[in-house]
Automatic annotation (TrEMBL):
It comes from Lactarius akahatsu. It is found in: Mitochondrion. Homodimer. NCBIfam families: gcp_kae1. Keywords: Acyltransferase, Metal-binding, Mitochondrion, Transferase, tRNA processing. It catalyses: L-threonylcarbamoyladenylate + adenosine(37) in tRNA = N(6)-L-threonylcarbamoyladenosine(37) in tRNA + AMP + H(+). This is N(6)-L-threonylcarbamoyladenine synthase. It comes from the Eukaryota. Its main location: mitochondrion.
Amino acid sequence: MLSPSRFWPRGHRHLRTRLFTVLALESSADDTCAAVVTSTGQILSNIVVKQHHIHEDFGGIHPYKAVQAHQLNMPGAVQRALRDANIAAAQVDGIAFTRGPGMTGCLGVGCSAAKTLAAALNKPLVGVHHMQAHALTPTLTSAPNPPTFPFLTLLVSGGHTLLVLASSASQFRVLATTVDESIGRVFDKVSRMLALPWSAKGPGASLEEFVAASPAREDVAPLMPRAMPGVLGFSFAGLHSAVERFVTAQGGAASLDVSTKHGLASAFQRTAVGQLEEKVVLALRWCRDQGLGVRHLVVSGGVASNSYLRDRLGHSVINATRQDPVSLVFPPPELCTDNAVMIGWASMHRFLAGNTDEYSILIRPKWSLDDDIDIPQTES
Ligand code: KG4
Ligand code: ZN
């Protein structure tokens, strides 16, 4: 059981003794999720309904099919989350949902379901920022030694590649973002370009599994570009193009033998993770030079479930922070990818502070972490 004393904003620490139970919904992309979480950090249930089999033929998330699948799966996910938690809907204390950022139609399904549940049950409601939830996950999962604020966080998902300074549960400053594509999206596209079969975990995880399955030849990969050396910012379009050019020049994926594909996939993963490594070291140096007292680096989001990334960042952070140690913190892989546990947990400080949203709250498909993300919405 988590002692959340370090998590609650100073003024609300007295609330940590009150048990508050949240039913949370997440539907920002292609996973339909529902979970029940308590203010003491107990995960009473965690339902994730994946849609990879629906989107594989389209080579990426098909917006309409995704909305349809959420509409189909959300009622059952909520029912199972309550059943697994052994709790009736009327017994939960609050309803949370992902307000943004994400795909408009997909967010709409979770938002409408949450608002309707909250209104029917007369429960308070909180709309959560999806990336805030990824960033705060280790404050739940790393008990009894959660990361302490301020911490640096690397958020790597299908929609984002961010380096963020987290000063509290609700204050974030974006230090770096991508100037073009997100790392998760490029993992997905390269996996597709190499015609790798999607595993149950999706295209990014398939690429990782393919690389790990056998040692790769080092001599087949094209020159992989190093993006914006020395700059605190990400770029993956050059790497994406380098792989695409190579595959096209060889006559397409069907013309590549398995060992060539291995070499290419492995060089891609090495270069993409190498870029994360380089920018993390730059950001850690910046935090040190600013005298911010950063003691933890949190790495979260779907791509953070990648074992190669976890190993490699583990070594580079130790090496880069020998004089002034910074601990690397990952959520467990299953809570790196999208889930509703993180949404319930990220809503908790707002419920306990009585800082909740109106039932008229609207989704925010585009929403920066730099904005004041915990301001309640009061108008329709
Ligand atoms: O956080 P997430 O589940 O959803 C978004 O918020 O986007 O991240 C999904 C992204 C996808 O691009 C997926 O392919 C990638 O994370 N991903 C991975 C792995 N598992 C998921 N990428 C690389 N290696 C993995 N093992
Ligand atoms: Zn996510």
